[in-house]
Structure to design on (266 residues):
């Protein structure tokens, strides 16, 4: 699929969307969809330039073919509750067709370049990888 | 939308899907889509019965109208890396059309019932709420 089509796919509206099907009937060939959610804590959380640079770096990852969806976020202003962690600065939610595709992404030159270019910006990163229960 | 249609929507295939559009052009009326990702650590992680009960409880939340997408997961078998936290037992990824809808969900009787019925199962829960950067 050309990059433009994928960008349209990635930005299609909420009403028409579904993340990754949990039900067996919708499993992609080769495995079950994998949700990869990453949270970054910046060394300089007050720096808009650093935040923008990290976000721009994450945007380059859309070009990785195995990345089916990418959503770059910041903490939402939901109600304060003890269980809510809004201390992070930037989040990255990706969907892959399989565990194997996520591994291909980890080894992809664009991902390696992203880490080389941007890892100096964060002091902490936490990754959660999940598959359908 | 009748529940059956929503269930089809929620389980539609990966190729056709998109989570919540980040771009302004795809903002839902009333606000930007909100991603609500919750991780549960069971008191008895070895208990399949407890895990199944928690998953069944989470399934009841599909009936909450403002929940646009729900994906219930368990840790994936991705490569071991220091930054990957696979210590949790069950995850819940929801998408709402707005911050306000997430608040309606928090106050919804079905959500309150879920917490009353299932909170004894977990020892720890962490919530990340994010909106498009």
């Amino acid at each position: 699929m050309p990059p433009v089509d994928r960008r349209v796919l990635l930005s299609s509206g909420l009403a028409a969307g579904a993340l990754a099907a949990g039900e067996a009937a919708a499993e992609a060939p080769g495995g079950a969809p994998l949700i990869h959610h990453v949270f970054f804590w910046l060394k300089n959380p007050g720096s808009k330039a650093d935040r923008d640079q990290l976000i721009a770096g994450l945007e380059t990852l859309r070009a990785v073919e195995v990345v089916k969806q990418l959503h770059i976020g910041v903490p939402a202003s939901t109600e304060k509750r003890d269980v809510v962690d809004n201390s992070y600065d930037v989040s990255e939610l990706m969907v892959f067709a399989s565990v194997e595709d996520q591994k291909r992404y980890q080894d992809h030159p664009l991902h390696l370049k992203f880490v080389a270019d941007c890892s100096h910006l964060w002091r902490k990163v936490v990754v959660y990888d999940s598959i359908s229960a």
